[in-house]
Description:
The chain has one domain: UDP-N-acetylmuramoyl-L-alanine:D-glutamate ligase (3-Layer(aba) Sandwich), CATH 3.40.1190. 34% of the residues lie in helices and 22% in strands. Helix 6 links the parallel strand 9 and strand 10. The chain is globular, with a radius of gyration of 19 Å. It starts with a strand and ends in a 23-residue tail after the last helix.
Amino acid sequence: MQKKAIFLGECMIELNGNISSLGNSNTLMEVNFGGDTYNSAVYFSRLINKKTNTFYCTALSKDSFSKKMMERFKQEKLSCDFIRTDGENPPGLYSIEINENGERSFSYWREQSPTRQIFLRSEGKHLLNDISNADIFYYSGISAGILDEKQKKRLIKVGTTAKVCAFDFNYRHQLHYDKNKSQLLFKEINNCVDINFVSYDDFKELFNINKPNEIFNILSNNKNLILLRFKNSIIFKNLDQEIKTITVPHGKAVDTTAAGDAFNGSFLALMNNSENKYIEENILKSHAVTREVIKYKGAIIKKNQMPKLDNFKGKF
């Protein structure tokens, strides 16, 4: 029997381009699909062995964008068995705007997204039952942030039924606008997951810390693996073991939008393939993927641009 890996979250319609001349005339923007857990699912699927089936879990509608999104999932070998398609509205939309100086800013239109109601009604209850007891279950702070309080609880609970539950911290103040509630939420989630991927910048914004190791004082429960991205290093603590640091130089970067997403998906795939025996080696190989991803514009690089990890010797 194949293992079952489920990535849950919101994939959105993406508009990307330079709007500096839009005040005077029309302009061209690229239309694509993107989302944190979707990006991770893609890189996981590309690296996973044949013994594991990768599922993306979300809620869509029957509009043309939803149908095209499903086609993209299947193209990336993401199984769609756990996707609701009974929504009343199209997927959410966001834009990446680039100004004259090359600086990026984001705008979101996701208030009516079907994913916000993923666990509601009888269909939502059936979905919760279907995605229970996965071998790997992955969600993010954004996945939780778009849900109401009852659905947040259901998401956290279904994650605990998995053999391995992984979480991407991904704090966004636009979604987690109450800092006190958000601090309690992220602490609760940490106590319910086996792997917690944390960005120092996100954590600093929410908990107002000054040094990276403070994260382990706040989160460490000696029961999970915490992987912290901090500058040119990955700092990690596994269970009750000591804190360790691995240097991971980034090299030239064109677009870092999906750096964390690529790392997380790659690490989970390699961990699954090697049965979690070599944390340090998996960190280095996952970062090798990240180094390639950030060389190109966009979250998902072409399959032929993926690095060859079989011969990777741990040096950059």
